[in-house]
Structure to design on (269 residues):
C-alpha cells in the first residue's frame, strides 16, 4: 500500500489525528521523523527547495553537510514503502509545506492528508501557549513575507501578525503542490463532530477499514481536557470555542481580513 503523510499547521490537531489513525491494527504512523529527528528541516523551515538543488534526482545538496542524513532518509523511505502485507505506513509533520516538491521527487507515491483547523483557534492556541517563539516565527515569517509579498510589513513583536501569516504562507505553499499528490482535506472540527463518517472516509483513503476503537477514541477524546501542551484530550468547548474569548475584536478582524479567502474556502466563514 502507498505511504501517507498527515500534514497540518502547528496546533491544528495533528497529534490527535495521528493517534487516532495509528490505533488501527494495520497502520503505523511515525511522529515527525523529518522535523523532530533531524536538524536540517527545522533549520531550513520556509526555505523553498528547487529541482536544480537536487542531487541524484531526489536528495538535496544540503543533505551532504549533515553526517548520516542521506542514509537515514533512504532508510526512512524504504520503511515507508515496504509495510507488512495488507498494512500501511505513514508519518505526520507540521513543517514541510515548502518541501512538498522535494517530497514528490523523494517519495513519488506519497498520499497526503491535509488537516486544517479554524485559523482563529490555531492562532489563539499558539499565542496562549507562547509557542510562536519556539518555532522562530519572529525571524522566519517577516523574512518570508519580505521576500515573497509586495508592500507587506510584519511586526516581529506582534504574535497575532506572525501566527496569521504563518498560517497563510503554509496554506498557500500546500495548496500550490497538493494536487500533485493523491490527497484528501479534512477539517478537525468535522472529525470530532462526525467521527464515524470522517474516520471511515479517511481510512478508506489510506487503504484500510476503520476500526471501532478508533471511533471510540475520537468520541472519548473531547469530553474533557487532560494532559499538557501536546495532549490529545481536549474538551469540545476548548477546541471549538476558546478562541472567541482569547482573541480581541481587533485580532479577530485582522485575522479575518488577512485570511478571508482561505476561511471561505474551508467554510469557516
Amino acid at each position: 500500500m502507498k505511504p501517507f503523510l498527515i500534514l497540518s499547521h502547528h496546533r491544528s490537531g495533528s497529534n490527535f489525528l495521528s493517534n487516532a489513525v495509528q490505533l488501527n491494527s494495520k497502520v503505523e504512523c511515525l511522529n515527525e521523523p523529518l522535523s523532530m529527528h533531524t536538524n536540517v528541516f527545522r533549520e531550513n523551515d520556509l526555505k523553498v527547495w528547487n529541482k536544480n538543488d537536487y542531487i541524484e534526482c531526489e536528495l538535496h545538496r544540503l543533505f551532504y553537510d549533515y553526517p548520516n542524513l542521506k542514509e537515514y532518509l533512504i532508510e526512512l523511505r524504504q520503511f515507508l514503502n515496504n509495510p507488512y502485507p495488507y498494512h500501511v505506513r505513514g508519518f505526520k509533520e507540521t513543517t514541510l509545506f515548502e518541501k512538498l516538491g522535494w517530497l514528490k521527487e523523494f517519495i513519488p507515491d506519497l498520499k497526503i492528508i491535509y488537516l486544517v483547523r479554524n485559523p482563529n483557534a490555531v492562532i489563539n492556541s499558539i499565542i496562549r501557549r507562547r509557542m510562536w517563539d519556539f518555532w522562530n516565527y519572529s525571524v522566519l515569517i517577516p523574512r518570508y513575507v519580505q521576500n515573497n509579498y509586495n508592500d507587506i510589513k510584519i511586526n516581529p513583536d506582534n504574535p497575532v501578525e506572525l501566527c496569521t501569516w504563518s498560517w497563510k504562507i503554509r496554506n498557500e505553499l500546500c495548496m500550490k503542490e497538493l494536487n500533485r499528490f493523491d490527497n484528501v482535506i479534512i477539517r478537525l472540527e468535522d472529525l470530532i463532530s462526525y467521527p464515524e463518517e470522517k474516520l471511515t472516509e479517511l481510512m478508506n483513503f489510506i487503504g484500510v477499514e476503520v476500526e471501532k476503537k478508533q471511533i471510540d477514541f475520537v468520541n472519548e477524546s473531547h469530553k474533557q481536557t487532560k494532559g499538557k501542551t501536546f495532549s490529545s484530550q481536549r474538551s469540545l468547548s476548548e477546541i471549538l470555542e476558546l478562541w472567541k474569548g482569547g482573541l480581541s475584536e481587533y485580532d479577530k478582524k485582522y485575522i479575518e481580513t488577512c485570511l478571508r479567502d482561505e476561511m471561505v474556502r474551508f467554510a469557516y466563514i
Remarks:
- The mean pLDDT is 92.
